Amino acid sequence: MLYRNPAGSGRNGLRRIALVAALIGSWSPAAFAADATYQAGVAQQTLYGEVDGAETNDGATLFWRGVPYAAAPVGALRWKAPQKPVAWTGPLDATGDASLCPQMTGGKAVGSEDCLTLDISRPNTDETGLPVLFYIHGGNNQGGNSGTVDFEQLAVNADAVVVAVNYRLGLLGFNNLPALKTGNPQEDSGNYTLLDLARALDWIDANIGAFGGNADNITVSGFSAGGRDVMAMLISPLFHDKFQKAISFSGGMTLADAEESTGLVADAIAPLVVEAGIKPDDETARQWLMSTDPAVKDFLYDLPDDRLAGLMTNAGIRMAVFPHLYNDGVVLPKEGFETDSYNAVPLMMTTGTSEFSLFARFDPEFAAASDADLIDDSDLNARYKFAEGYGSKLYEIFNAQDSAREMIDRYDAPIYTARFAWGEDPQIVGDTMADLYGSFHGIWIPFAADNTSGFAAQFPEAFDNAGARDLAAKFGTYLRNFMWEGDPNGDGLTAWNPWQSADSGPTQLILNADMEKADIRMSDERTPYEDVLKAMDADDTISAEAKRHLIETVLDGRWFSFGLDRHYDNNNTWVGVE
């Protein structure tokens, strides 16, 4: 019962009162009661006003969308630490979709900077003291939103309060140009997204009791970029004591070198300076942007958010194109994941066997081809299989195994890793999914959320069988147990053992299923990164020229590619912290 505390215990009491007082400016008994009181129904009282939600999922789930956790970071607040929300009078309609943060969608800039909000789902019951799942969406920290995964059924299955967060994206979320520095060490880090996430967790700490959640039983989780943000939170002093468990879905360890990142940010914005007629060329503009001239700050604050959203959008999981998660030495340590000061909580990391398939499929090298061409053209298929296969193996290693090995000797809490292997049997999922996509980036979503949202919606029939449903039920139970107790194991489940050593003992839980039932086993397999490179060297399924081309254009510079780039002497800019 170490990680499941009763409602009202732990950090509640005097500490909670102090936090509430800081948030609202003064404390009153009525305001504090909002933190601890939940009455079944769609109307709930937060510290800032009433929120009215709705029933969904055939009445099984209650939801509230677009609940503010911070003031809009606009005007003078654009590149500042998030401030407390502005209280409202009368009920806040929390039934519509939350506003997107500024980003590019379909080649167009969309969204509003007034976007620091939460989506909240919980079972339609009168239960209180429920565990809280805090979810950070993916999208390279440049796109996405709180509604990309439908968690309505997960809230019921896990008997939990699920909170999905919207946070500043792109250069609004990560920007460490010198002119933006205020003298506040956290703001000066340039890691505004992480400041948003910390503020959201503070809001949850003070308000989640109003939705029946236990603020002393929070599991932070995220997918892709969100998973990488979770990993960064594990080494950030800013997040000390803000959560009790963590889940990284296809995340891995990524940080950007703060000093090198400044120059890349300046490179991206320089053309806008030239366009505005402030400087005559990109290089002069770059140097100006890297100065502390007060006019730089004025220029940046005056830029429309859609112009900022349109920059660095071709990152494709390459840190050198959009550097973020800066090792500034305050919000994130200079030594990165080699720190000895982890926020060590029970940790779950998941990956898939075809993690790179979507990135290979939509890389310019293959994007113009139809699915049929990629399958039927033997030469094209061989080149695709080379890029996708080796990229997926390296990405898989990066997402879980390498992180566990890096952490195990300095992390004082259990580390559980899992690999989805489901999606590669054509008799279950069909030829197209099996041949081209397999256990793709995000394969966990239908099994956790119990619905085919995300990319899985392209293949709903693949999940419509007893085996997939059994796997969803069992994986959902692992998640439920982990959220409640900090241990995924339970009756009727294959034992999921945590890592014991970097070199021997259990590693990943392998998750698969046939048409009838789940097939889950515990593994002690380890795949050295170097062995994948040796296999690539020896591979003769494509010509040497084709191999070199794919290594230099499709596989280079990705999150997982540091070792590959060094091995093949690829000519690219690397700003990640190894």
The tally of helices reads 21
- Low-confidence parts: 1-35
Based on the structure, what is the oligomeric state of the protein chains?
A: single chain
Strand content: 5-15%
Distance between the termini: 37 Å
Secondary structure class reads alpha/beta
Helix content: 25-40%
- Give average pLDDT, whole number: 92
Largest sheet: 11 strands, mixed
Instruction: Choose one word for the global shape.
Output: globular
Radius of gyration, in Å, reads 23 Å
Strands of the widest sheet, in order across it, are 3-4-8-10-9-11-12-13-14-15-16
Count the strands?
16
Can I get a quick summary?
This protein has 578 residues and is of the alpha/beta class. It has helices at residues 14-24, 29-36, 152-158, 170-173, 185-188, 192-207, 225-233, 258-275, 282-289, 294-302, 305-309, 357-361, 371-376, 378-407, 426-429, 431-437, 444-449, 466-485, 529-538, 544-553, 562-568, and strands at 43-46, 49-52, 54-56, 61-68, 92-93, 103-105, 108-110, 117-123, 130-136, 161-165, 213-223, 245-249, 347-352, 415-420, 508-513, 518-522.
Please tell me about this protein's structure.
35% of the residues lie in helices and 15% in strands. With 578 residues, it is of the alpha/beta class. Strands 3-4-8-10-9-11-12-13-14-15-16 form an eleven-stranded mixed β-sheet, with helices on both faces. Strands 1-2-5 form a three-stranded mixed β-sheet. Helix 8 (258-275) packs across helix 9 and helix 14 runs antiparallel to helix 19 (529-538). The radius of gyration is 23 Å and the shape is globular.
